[in-house]
Design brief:
It contains 20 helices and no strands. Helix 6 packs across helix 14. The mean pLDDT is 87.
């Protein structure tokens, strides 16, 4: 304890002076120190630690409040250092990529193929149900269906900010002018923040329900077969782990090349992010069954370390760089909360009701096909899976927000071609 008190003192001194070098060392030290201490505290708070996300969600709110109360001003070097390393230099991409790639590749091939078909079905039905329930909520409070779809359904289901609301606003700007696109975007961002918070809360609550009713939960497994067990284990050494890490990085690089240089928006008429191609590459590798078992074991080891030892840090950084408490507070109208809540509920609970028919566990189905679909992109998926302590379900979470979001973007482009958002904005 005394060591961490000294470390916290150093971190506070750095924050108080506002000085931080623009490299990975300063932000890693600050984030790790605050996250470890804050996480230990929140993991011991009754009720919070069981139903509201515990240490993981606590770290996220610590970060958000540090910025909100100007303890870490956005114009200070400390903030720039954290944001540059976490977003600009790609640690968040590294975190997602390691968990995503490793999770897909260590899943036994036959069970993965069986699970994916059913998962896509419950994802689609759940999204339609969420949209329908949201429209019903809008009608109850006096909002017509088109206004609900434009202002709520599309932003919530659109796959977050960079892959969802931003390209949607660009489509609007191209058709109706920059002012219309900008006005729509300002409201859409607030809606996605609220939906993201609801998604995280539902995920944390469902995780708590899973503990009290274990028959509803797979403990991190989506299917009723243990899809994360690696068969025919061989002795593992450091070189296996290093080789697995290099393979993970190679898949990341290949996916970005495909997304940015080969299958670009100009070629396929839609902007698919590299995470979609990561999933495709890993699925092909898994189905082909060409990776040695020791490399799969190395990937499992890497995934375990990253998910267990850096998630608190990641959540703290997300709170600092991505969670806008002021936008959340401004959007806290009864109408907005009601419609958004119903939309998220439909997306979450319908997949849970369908889970049994596809041999899925209801808790995991609701978290992946529901909460991840309504979360705020990749960072939202991390928050959802972190709050529910189910980061091993990252492949399904990314399928929800990336592939599901890409489909919604296509639908939005078609709707915006005939519906002028300025006529329906709240």
């Amino acid at each position: 304890m005394y060591i961490y008190i000294v470390l916290l003192g150093i971190a506070i001194a750095v924050i108080a002076t506002g000085y931080a070098q623009m490299n990975m060392l300063y932000p890693m030290f600050i984030l790790f120190t605050i996250a470890i201490i804050g996480g230990e505290i929140f993991s011991r708070i009754p009720i919070w630690n069981k139903y509201l996300g515990g240490a993981v969600m606590g770290c996220m709110f610590i970060g958000a409040f540090l910025v909100f109360f100007n303890a870490i001003p956005k114009d200070w070097m400390v903030y720039d250092s954290i944001k540059t390393w976490f977003n600009g230099q790609g640690f968040l991409d590294f975190y997602i990529s390691v968990i995503l790639i490793c999770s897909v590749l260590v899943v036994p091939r036959k069970i993965l193929m069986k699970a994916l078909g059913g998962f896509i079905i419950i994802l689609a039905i759940g999204s339609v149900a969420g949209a329908g329930l949201g429209i019903l909520g809008g009608l109850i409070v006096g909002v017509d269906a088109k206004s609900t779809i434009i202002n709520y359904t599309l932003p919530i289901l659109g796959g977050g900010n960079g892959a969802g609301t931003v390209p949607m606003s660009q489509v609007i700007s191209q058709n109706y002018g920059d002012k219309v696109g900008g006005d729509w975007y300002s409201g859409a961002v607030a809606i996605t923040v609220i939906a993201n918070i609801f998604s995280i809360l539902f995920a944390a609550i469902l995780a708590g329900v899973g503990k009290s009713k274990p028959e509803l939960s797979g403990g991190g497994n989506l299917t009723k077969s243990n899809i994360h067990v690696i068969e025919d284990k061989k002795p593992l050494n450091d070189r296996n782990i290093a080789a697995s890490l290099v393979l993970t990085l190679g898949i990341y690089v290949l996916s970005t090349i495909i997304s940015n240089q080969i299958l670009t928006k100009d070629v396929i008429k839609i902007n698919l992010p590299n995470y979609v191609w990561m999933i495709v590459i890993c699925l092909l590798l898994n189905v082909a069954d060409i990776l040695p078992s020791d490399m799969k074991q190395g990937m499992a080891k890497i995934q375990t370390f990253i998910s267990k030892q850096t998630t608190w840090l990641v959540m703290l950084a997300i709170g600092i760089t991505s969670i806008d408490l002021s936008a959340f507070v401004k959007a806290l109208t009864g109408q907005t909360i009601f419609i958004t809540l119903l939309t998220v509920m439909g997306c979450v609970f319908v997949p849970m009701l369908l889970a049994k028919a596809f041999q899925f566990y209801p808790i995991e189905a609701g978290i992946t096909a529901g909460c991840c679909m309504t979360a705020q992109g990749g960072a939202g998926v991390i928050a959802v899976l972190g709050a529910s302590n189910r980061t091993e379900l990252m492949p399904y979470g990314q399928i929800s927000t990336r592939i599901g979001g890409a489909v919604v973007l296509i639908v939005a482009s078609v709707l915006f071609a005939s519906w002028n958002p300025s006529m329906y904005m709240m």
